[in-house]
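Appendix B, record 7
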Amino acid sequence: MNIDNVYLTYKISRLIFAFLFLSFFVFFVKNYELYRTETVILIIYNITAFISLFNLKKIGFFDFFLDVVFISSLIFLRFDLFNYLAILYLFPIFFYAFLTGRKDSYLQPFFAVLTYVLTVFIYGDFSFENMINTVLISFSLFVINYAALGMYSRMLEQKKYIAMLEEENKKSEVFKRLYRISADFAHELRNPLTSLLAAVDLIENPDYRDKMVSIIKSEGRRIEEILNTFLTFSKPVEKNYVDINIRNFIHDILRKINIGNKEVFVNISENLYIYTVPDALEIALRNIIQNAFQWSKSKVVINAYTKDSKMFIEIEDDGKGIEKEDIDRIFEPFFTKRKEGTGLGLAIAKKYIIELGGGIKVDRSPLNGAKFIVWLPIGYDNG
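Structure tokens (predicted):
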């Protein structure tokens, strides 16, 4: 249960009730002069209830105390209607205790009872019926306050239990991903190791020696590449911040990767700068851009712009895009749909982007392929 929503609902309901109450006096009471004071109180209450709608930051004692004072004022003016008006006390008393769980909530029923006793004293009506009413209303108000505090406590326990279940679920997901990553890592190493062992068994045969040596070297490099990439994934970012012209930076990355005969369109202003760690950003963007070229049919588009003290870098291709069931897994280590891929490129990219204080997500591109959106802080507070 969202307490803020309950609080807002209470305030809106109070305003509606106050408006309907005032409408009754305005439209249905024939002798207006007899109820002038009550009408003025209702007008003030309506205005106050309306203004209180604009303050939802904190649940305050006086916000509910206002309701108790309003009801007490009506009881004082219309003591003959006490049996009908007293029930209204239940709402502010219950909701303040229920929404806050504070012990000072007992001041609300105490003030209500004190007001009633003073009203009886002023009117001098110490009848047996009024004495019974005093006892019953006092008991009812304090009991409802006590019950609301109990509900608040049970609600807190329920929220803690739900939070614990959510935490356990998160841990379970982490372990599931860890098991999956471990299995993928073992699978990635097993293939070249199998080839190595087979080559070692045949290397003594002169007819196969040269070919087996070549296989051993090739698969050894493959294992070294996997381990080096995995070490890069686990290596923290060395945060040496410098100013970077992002347009020149992107062009430098494009010169270092193989784009083949595909087209690339870079839509970036010449005067767009970011204060960040160049090595980490290069690794992250190079992996994303390289991935875009590997999956594109004919072109890749790279855009960059700033908004709300952040730099956004969009990399999109005209490939076949990413299937919905794969979107949640593409940033996991060793997840890949390419036979020659390690599945660590996008995982490393996301890790470095997050360590630089940014974020990354994937979407569908207007080119029908994938669109990676990276955002990073551009200010100097990183340094």
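Remarks on this record: Residues 172-234 form a domain with the Helix Hairpins fold (CATH 1.10.287). Strands lie at 242-245, 263-267, 273-276, 299-307, 310-317, 359-364, 370-377.
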